[in-house]
Amino acid sequence: MTDQSALARPAAQTPPQVNWFSRKIHKSETFRAYAVLSPALLFLGFAILIPFAILVVLSFWTPVGFDFNREFTLKNYRDIMERPIYGTLLWRSLWISTMATVFTVLLCYPMAYYVAFHVHRNKMVWIVLMTLPFWTSYLLRVFAWKVVLGYEGVINSGLIWVGWIEEPLKFLLYSPSAVIITLAHAWAAFAILPLYVSLEKIDKSLLEAATDLGDGPMRRFFRITLPLSLPGVISASILIFIPTTGDYITPALLGGPNGMMIGNLIQMQFGPTNNWPMGAALAIVLMLTIAAICAAFILITFFVRKRIT
Amino acid sequence: MSDDSYISIQNVQKYFGSFCAIENISMDIAHGEFFSLLGASGCGKTTLLRMLAGFESPTKGEIFIDNQPMSDVPPHYRPVNMVFQSYAIFPHLNVHDNIAYGLRKRKLPKAKVTEMVDEMLNLISLPDYGNRKANELSGGQRQRIALARALILRPKVLLLDEPLGALDKQLREQMQLELRQLQRTVGITFVFVTHDQEEAMTLSDRIAVMADGEVMQLDTPIGLYERPVNRKVASFIGTMNFFDGVVADEAGETLKIEAQGLGPITAPANPSNKAGFYKGDKVQVAIRPEKLVLSAQKPDAAFAASGRVQNMAYLGERSHYLIEMDGLDKHVAVSSQNLVPGASLFEMGSDVWINWQSDAVVVLERN
To answer: Which CATH superfamily is domain B5-231 in?
Structure first.
């Protein structure tokens, strides 16, 4: 005999009581999305928007001794416009980080290309190995470059030993080129990953189709591979350009007087010079400049992409 | 190489490491032919197609296209174009630029290119689609654009790698008809790879049935269906009933065979099977389900046997039966057309007779 009671329909019941939150979660897609997002939103609100607001307010004040004159003024911004030191440093920072970005992307693109198209096994191992420099502290890497580029460093003593040069090359250390070399190496991992992801995503049959339709390897690269990996190039460039423009550790340690960047100046305002409002104004000018450049860059790349294909 | 051969594949072998993808294949394809490579996945048909395109090179042997040896010709210089299984529509280009892609090299004036593309769009019945983006297209439209992109270059040979596999059944049948029509219009040699025997039968002038890197039979659709050379081909193309038998006597064009479950029968000596059969040979007797005729009473026919309906399926225009027969451990499949409404349907379990014509019987080697 089977147990009939287990198969019998349950007696009619009052509908189960569901609380407001569960009902909302169940019914509204928007609510669900915000519920998932809210921790991140809260964190962003506190950790970014509030400090940013403080910075904006601060930039319209002026320092008085160890306190601030809370009267609204555009003096800091006027100073930035009028005194050439700020413009020079900003311009140099943009130039150095542009060079660093260009070199990094140019160096990393072939590496990412190789792993995406020519490595068939253990791709992840290759990627991890390429990001290996990233496993040590930033400061340590900068010091390592100091050892490599220094007057008695690896490159100079090597070249002297081979006999190609008589005296150490002075431009290697304490110069903008030292900063560019170090930045390009230090941020390589940020370029490889987005480049790899965008190249890896390209359907191999598209490349075969291009070949089939008469394109040689070079033509195919410029008509298919490059345009399709452009999102990776853009994100890699932006990922490197933004942090390197404001970097102050590398120029402080390797830049020398000619390699000083806007980041060093901002750091000085908040440190030894003790002019926080000026530092805040510089930070905001830097941020707006970077935002404008990134926007222009994205627009240009999309325009170019339209033209070359 | 025969005189009218346009593509000639001569003793081609292909190894991937120690894995042999193509055993040793030689075949000739005529100009303007719709030729299919048919086989289950892994039989080497796609490898052969990719060797024609130039994406793989033969380990041994040579491929000629229009009398030119192809081994030193890289894919982008070959007079062939391909329609890929995934269509490979360039996602960053619109329809016009996709179709015009291969024309870039020819440095034609812009107006001429547009004219050629519009002509192609008309041919594939997608006029005014030039400005559509790749992601706004359905599967069938992508397929047609992939075709147009290859055909606009007027290749000597068009290679198609299972181009209809991703489409749903109805669209696929429509595209089959359009494809055949298109091939007749443009007059280009098509080499078509498929695993779908029905599709190959519908489209092709000739079909090469492949298995394990070898061509088992190369014939017209009729030849493959009516005169298969072995059991593999016979069971790959359509459905086939097999019976074990022994040749009792051979008399010119006719074989007398003692077949299990069927009794003494006669059959034409299979002309496409070169081996020939002699008295005492163990053979396999094969009969297609639709060539068996069912009746309730003992028929007035030269060859007949009795059995019971074990299972039946009504499919509308025809019914499929499985007949249980004495002295046979497997069921015989019979397919009969439903010509008269409601009539000639047999109940499950009812006693029936099957009869057939002597020339419906195919004799194959037993392995």
So the answer is: P-loop containing nucleotide triphosphate hydrolases (3.40.50.300)
